[in-house]
Design a protein that fits this description.
alpha+beta, D-Maltodextrin-Binding Protein, domain 2, 5-stranded mixed sheet
């Protein structure tokens, strides 16, 4: 969402009545203050434009302050931070959270629970997405002898059941001819617990969502076993609202989406500053945040409800249904684009049709710099890093097959004549080397030496 588009209708929506209506919704206290409660996941960093970054920028409070001055109402925003989407859904269906953000699979559970408990919710915008599914990754210990998904047969795999990462695991195993219910021992664990289990050896692999795989790889505590983008199925995070709240306070929902759009603009225009801000708020390394949220990051940030994402949501329903986590979900009834359309105005159709930026050759973040340097090819990036090794904070390269961005020093490289191709997983790199006579996998340090020698 661009600033000009989101500002087109600023101030035009009318505030809904302050008296308590049927079905709840934020109401005024004795002092006339209206509290809006927002549930978010600070460390699920593809939701930052509706959570961590938005909160730090203060844009939602600013929008509501302007509305309050016009309408004679005082607004207060209450932010509640959770590790996953499940507790946000529980609080929403209890009428205690008005607006929440979570991943695609939790969104479907949100829709199902809302319908079941007669507290319907609606999907009103998207935060970050990846059209191929690269936001979820299966990792294993750095010294593990597991080389591919087929090696997981009979192994213990940690994931969060009902999450998008669990969906990736189920689908990937099925494609590999492995029954996810019978052929592995699935451990239903929170991400942090699963990360500890992997390190302790009580789990053989971990399937998780952003930012856990990147964090563990960056820390040297894991290596990628499966890149979720190999599924070529979109995954995303979005914003859900309670229907009763949205009907009662539609102008507040639009103010939230307007603020989210401004936060999205800020992230696009100041990617390094945004990464540093999120890192400070979450305790995550800024390098990890930037892997997902940077200018060439794994996630694309765009608030529009794209048809490809909604179609993917419909394909997710059978996976959750087979796990007995939902029954039938009316996805079309759950998606409500009326609010985001009013915020965008006439610019919505153009924004909806826009796709992710074209893939480039990666970027380098130098120490002490508040910008990164982009490269057309991974070979150019390697030559630059080889010549500036001491000054490099981190370098990122896109997987040669899936396009998933990864840390250059954690990627598996293939040397093929004059070409150097990076991959997120060793299995993908070995498949490339096998398919090209004379090609071979090489270490990062060797790739740097080869790149410098070729310059």
């Amino acid at each position: 969402m661009r600033s000009k588009a989101i500002g087109a209708l600023a101030g035009t929506a009318l505030l809904a009545t302050l008296t308590a209506g049927c079905g709840g919704g934020a109401s005024a206290d004795d002092s006339g203050t209206v509290t809006v409660t927002v549930g978010y996941q600070s460390r699920t960093i593809n939701t930052v434009t509706a959570g961590t970054l938005l909160r730090s920028l203060g844009y939602f409070e600013e929008e509501l302050r302007g509305r309050g001055e016009r309408d004679g109402v005082t607004y207060k925003v209450k932010w509640q931070d959770y590790a996953t989407g499940a507790p946000i859904t529980a609080q929403m269906t209890a009428g205690k959270i008005d607006i929440g953000s979570m991943g695609d699979f939790p969104l479907l559970i949100n829709a199902a629970r809302g319908t079941q408990l007669n507290r319907p919710t609606r999907l009103v915008s998207v935060t970050g997405y990846n059209l191929a599914g690269g936001l979820n990754t299966v990792v294993t210990a750095p010294d593990s002898k597991l080389d591919s998904l087929s090696d997981l047969r009979g192994k213990k795999v940690s994931t969060s059941v009902g999450s998008a990462a669990d969906g990736t695991l189920v689908r990937a195993l099925q494609q590999a001819g492995i029954d996810p219910e019978k052929d592995i021992r699935k451990l239903n664990q929170q991400p942090a617990v699963g990360a500890s289990a992997l390190q302790a050896g009580s789990a053989d692999a971990l399937s998780q969502f952003v930012a856990w795989p990147g964090l563990l790889a960056f820390q040297g505590r894991a290596k990628a076993l499966y890149d979720g983008a190999e599924l070529k199925l979109p995954t995303f995070h979005g914003v859900t609202v309670r229907q009763d709240f949205a009907k009662k306070r539609s102008a507040v929902v639009e103010d939230f989406l307007r603020a989210q759009g401004r936060a999205t603009d800020y992230l696009h225009e100041h990617p390094v500053a945004a990464s540093e801000s999120v890192a400070k708020a979450t305790g995550l390394p800024a390098e990890v945040v930037h892997l997902y949220n940077g200018s060439q990051g794994i996630a694309t940030f765009d608030t529009t409800l794209k048809p490809a994402l909604i179609a993917a949501l419909k394909k997710d329903v059978p996976v959750l249904r087979s796990a007995k986590l939902v029954g039938d979900v009316d996805v079309d009834g759950f998606v409500d684009d009326s609010y985001i359309k009013r915020v965008f105005g006439s610019g919505y159709a153009k924004a909806l049709a826009a796709g992710p930026p074209a893939r480039r050759g990666g970027e380098v973040w130098l120490k002490g710099k508040d910008t990164t340097t982009a490269f057309a090819t991974s070979a150019e990036l390697l030559r630059y890093v080889a010549a500036h090794r001491a000054a490099v904070r981190t370098a990122y390269v896109p997987d040669a097959s899936t396009g998933t961005l990864w840390f250059a020093d954690r990627a598996v490289w293939v040397s093929d004549g004059d070409e150097l191709r990076p991959y997120v997983t060793g299995s993908a790199a070995r498949a490339d080397a096998t398919a090209h006579p004379g090609a071979r996998t090489v270490s990062y340090s060797t790739a740097l030496d080869l790149a410098r020698a070729a310059s």
